[in-house]
Specification:
Blueprint lengths: L4 H37 L5 H16 L4 H7 L9
Helix pairs in contact: 2-3
Length: about 80
């Protein structure tokens, strides 16, 4: 590739368009992450909250020392502050 005005303009325009594409995708990615965090970590309806409720329910039904509860008690679920 030679350093000519036309070549440099083409490279500049190509990089400018790629930068604009990244900015647009970054905004889309941010929205998708917010949706994901809501699905996973919502304090009442999120998957983590429901899983922890299910574990507590199993513990109350079967007891903490039963094989049924021990099967699920080791599955880690962590609430992440977002």
């Amino acid at each position: 590739m030679e350093l000519q005005q036309a070549t440099l303009n083409t490279l500049y325009n190509d990089l400018l368009q790629k930068n604009r594409d990244v900015v647009a995708k970054t905004s889309e990615l941010s929205g998708l992450r917010l949706n994901r965090n809501n699905i996973l970590y919502h304090p009442e309806t999120g998957i983590v909250a429901l899983a922890l409720d299910a574990k507590n329910y199993s513990k109350s039904i079967f007891g903490a020392s039963t094989p049924q509860y021990k099967q699920i008690s080791g599955i880690p679920f962590k609430t992440v502050k977002v």
